[in-house]
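USER:
Class, as today's exercise, take the chain set out below, and explain how the chain folds.
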Amino acid sequence: MFAFARAVSHFAQNLASNFVQHSRLTFPLPHDIINSTNEREEMQMLNYEDIKKAQDYIVEQWGEDGEKVVTACYYSRKDVMSNKDFLDNCVACGGDWGAMLLTGIKRLFPQVWDAIPNEMGMYAFIVLLNVLILCGVDTSENN
C-alpha cells in the first residue's frame, strides 16, 4: 500500500510539475510579462547607432536632399509614436505603400514632407521607413 501511495504521489508531482511548466508557457505569471515587456521595449528602443544608420541611409540615397530631410526630421520630431498611430493618419493609395506613407508624413510632419525630393529613387519605401524612424515613429512594432 505504501508503494502505491508513493507512486501516486510521484505521479501527482510530475503531473503538477508538467502543468506548471506548460501553463507558464501559455499563461505567463505577472513577473514574466513585466520582464518580457521590458526586454521587448529595450529591443525597440532607438539608440544613437540606429539614428546614425537611418541618417546615413537617407543621405546615401538622396544626397543633398537627404540632408535637408534629416534636418527637417530633427526639427519636426514629436514624441515617440506607435506604428499603428502613424498608420491611422495615412490614406490608402491603391496598393502604393510609399504613397500611403507619404500621406501620413504630409499630415503629421509637413516640414519633412516639404523637404522630400520629387524623385525618390528605387528604394523610396525603405528610405521613407528611415525617415519615419527619425521622426519618432516606432517602425519595429509588430501590430
Observations:
- Residues 1-43 have pLDDT under 50 and may be disordered.
